[in-house]
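Why does this matter for the project? Reviewers at the last site visit asked to see concrete outputs rather than summary tables. In response, this paragraph embeds two records directly. Each consists of the residue sequence and, immediately after it, the corresponding structure tokens. Nothing has been edited or filtered.
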Amino acid sequence: MMSVPDPRFMAMAIRLAMRARDTVAPNPLVGAVVVRSGRIVGRGFHERPGLPHAEVLALREAGARAKGADLYVNLEPCCHLNKRTPPCTREILASGIKRVVIGLSDPNPQVSGKGISELEKGGIAVDLGLLKRRSFEINRGFLALMLHGRPFVTLKGAMSLDGKIATFTGDSQWISGAPSLKYAHQLRDTHDGILVGIGTVLKDNPLLTTRIPGRKTHHPVRIILDSMARTPLGARIFETLGESPVWIVTGPRAQKSRVRALEKQGARVFRLPAGEENDGVELRDLLSRLVEERVLTLLVEGGSRITAAFVRKRAVDRIRLVIAPMIIGGRDAIGWVGGDCPELLTEAWRLNRPLRTNRLGEDLLVSVDLWDADRLSETGGTAKIPSPERNA
């Protein structure tokens, strides 16, 4: 009788996978554990593109002990030939493994259920879905790349009860309370890049680093949409270049002298084609460039014009919105989503996804996941999740 899959071993595979967080993109984070008679006999994780995959490394460590053992892996093993690494399914079939426990199927069209099918045809039992939500979370950027061809985008905001993020003068510090600010830094810790507009830099002069007392944190790349290269040379973000890079995205009209000055300060400057607005940049080009630069998870912190651009293009996968018990009032106060208002409610973006709420001190956190592990599982990993961007 086959034992019930043990979540502890999948949790270990996920922890192993996370060791390559900063080196493996655009490949997925994958860890593997070989278990025989309740004991771990092999471990491995995929460190960077071109190096052996997690399953292969775990099987090598296990050696002959892999025969009759279970293999735990957080993502469906690959089954396709490529230039640098052999198919993992072939190695698994040759090892004598009797069962493979998989966290999540791989939507890569070259895999997408084919790996599971190949294992089952070879006589190996397959269990799918153990710790699928955690497996989804660590690879949501890779999954978005496979399904939508762009990074996984989290839209974050903090607003008053009447939907405002600042007074008409731009005063916005602070609408939300200390627990919400701590949560904002926790969000930064889980993303590859953080994006703001030049308005936020000019008004707030933020650091955009991750600060969680008593804990080692991850600092995302700081990305500023600044079509005219107006970022001040004395901005605070340049004081912390040793913690994370600063990327400034300009448009074709930015002065070359300003670009050179920003580069001299230590920023990396990207010049992209103009967008729909005369002083903007094309959002699709931006997201494509971020993928090329291996930024697969993006936290968009605003302001209102940047938020509006992502909403208008429906290029959003997750929303995290803090609502504070405050009323600002006034028609000239700045709303969370800027831009033009639709004439009809039928033109508004109805998310059609459940809203979840949590308390953050006196504030209320509203969370919306436009797709997640459950929705991915409904397709068996073989069909594309409807992209908000494509449905615009």
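We now turn to the second protein, recorded in exactly the same manner.
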Amino acid sequence: MPKTTIEADRAHMRAALALARRGLGQVWPNPAVGCVLVKDGRVVGRGWTQKGGRPHAETEAIARAGDAARGATAYVTLEPCSHHGETPPCAEALIAAGVARVVVALEDPDDRVAGRGLAVLRAADIAVDVGEGAAEARDVNRGYLKRLSDGLPMMTLKTAITTDGRIATADGESQWITGAAARADAHRLRADHDAIAVASATALADDPVLTCRLPGMTDRSPVRVLLDAHLRVPLTAKLYATVGEAPLWVFSAVPADDPRVQERQNAGAEHVTVATDNSGHGVNLRETFSRLAERGITRLLAEAGGMLATALLRDGLIDDLVAFRAPMLIGGDGVPMIGPLGVETLDQHMPLQRTAIRAVGNDVVETFRLAD
């Protein structure tokens, strides 16, 4: 039985959303967009935003469709752009390609677009429908939307814990709590984010590299962000030694004219001076993340120890929590996942909404969204 128009719209938009997700972690500061061109019930072109944000999804789909785009329906996960930038507007490209109808999941709140793309299409007598797949489209581009609305990136807190909620033994041993399959899954999580942040305490204890080292995905490493208020992490650390593999941005409270800053810049890192937090020991997190958003970062992953995780939660900066949980017990003398949050009664608890749970090898991965 042939699909109804509603069923067909839903199916093709789902396909476009799946394409959009391919761009996560790769397209900042642009949104991750997917586009499917359909004519006479057959897909004639597909596209998604390419690495670095260009070409755009619509341009890619039109190029693949060629002459078959004329008279087709375009399914696009975000309103086609209408402003002239490094490339011509996608709304004009769709008009020039001769599409007959455009189905858009979500309007783009960017002031340069904000309904203008839809207006341009309608002015060209193209049928436009908006709203199919809107909820998922919002989810795909939560980081892009938050950067526009709040001036901050979407923040994911990732942690590896034992069944009793410990991230290390009493003497700090933590490698490895989870198994190889879970660690590989964590590398895929890195690839879906624009940047990955680590505090100086973790950098000193674990000497991480923070790249994506899965076969075929080494080019998807995020920007590494080192939160090092007093530049305690030495130049011999792996983060500095691997600057050629992925960018390293260092945020500290040390003035730009300090010789230590010049040394780190000479090593290939970028340095940004921000204020300290109230304790004077760490950087001001909200200012730091605001500066990251100004640089175009939309999705930020924190691989945090207990102190940073606690500070992020206390400051209300976490959107998602991804916990890799191993079937082992350390006991009360181990290092807890988070420190005190000032909760004295149950009604003061920090609510979480579990959005996914799955087994990875012998471990379990749970994803939570922090309730508003």
